[in-house]
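Example 9 (inverse folding). The structure is encoded as follows.
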């Protein structure tokens, strides 16, 4: 300010003196600085901003914890925006940008502004694969035990899920994931929650390939009907479709088997017409198998037609819940849900089993005015969110808000999942939520991709 006044004086004084003005009159007309205002401005300009690079170890929806050289720092992220491409995944290297000065490990006086990806990570996250045994499956979670005997429960919402021969407890599966699992001892009695591990896919087939329903040949009679266990009954007011995990299209006794040639099989889907003992042969994606007889001739020998699954009628509807292999499903045009046994039903759900997800169930038989208890399900296929228009994706996540940042909410669902959602308002901004609020958010797993933050719509 003093330099400005000096320059003005140098320019104005000569002219003013020529005009007959005194020096005192000129000084009165010049701007003066307020000492208190200057001190206040200088103080505001001294706001200190910094960042901390660390490894993400914990996040409960509001508080985030990072590790730096074996020291742990926990920040209040309730006012921060999350700008990480993969969301918040345990073991990922992130940067926390904050306002204020850090004193030791005390972060209470800091204001976190942003959480972003580390610009130059030393150990970038890589997709990992593990072999496991399936323990439980719900609409939003998967529980499994790894080869070391450690049991975990993870969020499965949005993960690709494919089971060639149906879903049963103890089924060997391959899990693709991002992140680091919590440390625990083998043989832990209770599953350890791992909400910050991103599950990419779960399947009894490796690698996963989208099944070609024009090449999967179910064995049904030429009249278009299929044999079904007579134990179909009513469970909790919902019709059960399928028997005790077994449907054998050729009339032979089978345990948990769908056998297209009529040979006895244990846990097998055998499209080649050969005897199989516990080994399904679909080439991992429902492809035709090679053998002495092709599937068509094998079916003709048994007096069956050789029509592919895709040629059968399908029942359209939306998922309403899942408990291991018991699926609640509301067919379009019906008001009451039906319960479908997935114990031996081949199923492919590229967007997971979230409530509201659209699905097609291919079947043989006739649907009557009394419901669908007289039909036999052949195949279950969930909607692929990546191939649908945004408005046709109907998956939802419902629960109670347990934490939030400036642009995300973390929800505890009825099945125990801790799900992060970036929920958008109609104007495109973030939606203000409070802990304890109950919400039901429409989400699109295809938009979220490999991030563990589900994008609302």
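The amino acid assigned to each position is listed next.
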């Amino acid at each position: 300010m003093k330099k400005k006044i000096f320059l003005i004086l140098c320019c104005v004084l000569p002219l003013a003196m020529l005009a007959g003005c005194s020096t005192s009159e000129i000084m009165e007309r010049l701007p003066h600085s307020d000492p208190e205002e200057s001190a206040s401005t200088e103080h505001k300009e001294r706001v200190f901003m910094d960042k901390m690079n660390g490894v993400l170890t914990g996040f409960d929806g509001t508080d985030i914890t990072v590790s730096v050289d074996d020291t742990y720092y926990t920040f209040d992220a309730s006012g921060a925006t999350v700008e990480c491409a993969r969301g918040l995944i345990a073991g990922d290297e992130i940067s926390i940008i904050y306002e204020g000065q850090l004193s030791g490990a005390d972060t209470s006086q800091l204001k976190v502004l942003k959480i972003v990806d580390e610009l130059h990570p030393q150990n970038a996250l890589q997709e990992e694969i593990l072999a496991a045994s399936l323990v439980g499956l719900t609409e939003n979670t998967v529980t499994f035990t790894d080869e070391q005997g450690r049991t975990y429960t993870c969020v499965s919402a949005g993960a690709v899920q494919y089971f060639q021969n149906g879903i049963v407890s103890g089924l060997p599966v391959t899990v693709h994931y991002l992140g680091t699992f919590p440390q625990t001892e083998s043989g832990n009695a209770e599953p350890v929650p791992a909400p910050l591990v991103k599950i990419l896919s779960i399947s009894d087939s490796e690698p996963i390939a989208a099944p070609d329903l024009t090449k999967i040949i179910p064995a049904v009679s030429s009249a278009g009907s299929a044999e079904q266990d007579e134990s179909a009954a009513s469970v909790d007011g919902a019709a059960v479709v399928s028997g005790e995990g077994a449907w054998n299209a050729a009339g032979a006794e089978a345990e948990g088997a769908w056998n297209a040639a009529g040979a006895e099989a244990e846990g097998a889907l055998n499209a080649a017409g050969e005897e199989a003992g516990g080994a399904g042969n679909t080439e991992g994606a429902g492809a035709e198998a090679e053998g002495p007889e092709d599937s068509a001739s094998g079916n003709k020998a048994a007096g069956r037609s050789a029509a592919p699954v895709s040629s059968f009628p399908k029942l359209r509807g939306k998922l309403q819940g899942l408990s291991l292999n018991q699926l609640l499903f509301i067919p379009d045009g019906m008001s009451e849900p039906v319960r479908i046994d997935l114990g031996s039903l081949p199923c492919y759900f590229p967007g997971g089993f979230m409530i509201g997800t659209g699905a097609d169930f291919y079947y043989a038989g006739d649907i009557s005015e009394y419901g669908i208890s007289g039909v036999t399900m052949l195949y279950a296929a969930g909607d692929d969110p990546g191939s649908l228009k945004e408005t046709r994706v109907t998956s939802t996540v419902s629960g109670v808000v347990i934490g939030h940042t400036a642009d995300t909410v973390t929800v505890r669902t009825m099945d125990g999942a801790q799900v992060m959602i970036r929920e958008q308002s109609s104007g495109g901004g973030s939606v203000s939520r409070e802990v304890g609020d109950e919400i039901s958010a429409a989400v699109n797993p295809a938009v979220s991709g490999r991030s563990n933050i589900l994008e609302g719509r």
